[in-house]
Amino acid sequence: xxxxxxxxxxxxxxxxxxxxxxxxxxxxxxxxxxxxxxxxxxxxxxxxxxxxxxxxxxxxxxxxxxxxxxxxxxxxxxxxxxxxxxxxxxxxxxxxxxxxxxxxxxxxxxxxxxxxxxxxxxxxxxxxxxxxxxxxxxxxxxxxxxxxxxxxxxxxxxxxxxxxxxx
Length: 167
Hints:
Layout: E1 4-8, H1 16-32, E2 38-41, H2 55-66, E3 69-75, H3 83-89, E4 102-108, H4 111-127, E5 137-140, H5 147-158
Parallel strand pairs: 1-2, 1-3, 3-4, 4-5
């Protein structure tokens, strides 16, 4: 296993979504006493996501497959997750993430749109066999002014699923 892996499916590099996911991954690492997460920002891969033998993409797939904990984040696009995230996750067969604990994060312009997109991502992760400890984090963009509050609140909600006793 390779520890915690953060996967940002935002097509824009260093986005709010990516930074929120990185914060959750880092917070989860501190919570469970793991090393800092390995981060893959899919915006950095561009068209290479479509190249079957791209070594960087193959390395990212292997890290996701072997992770002890995944944090998968995406902004909402047209009512669901981004195409760049779907292209990457299409490299896994149905059940390809079997038993992999996964925290999902979705950002959007409104809370309702974020929740709908998160339910679509949750369904995709379930088809891939990932285990999702409760609902993911669905966030409206106007809530991103205090990411530290979002991160700590979310980690408090999932701490028992991560095997960390309540404080």
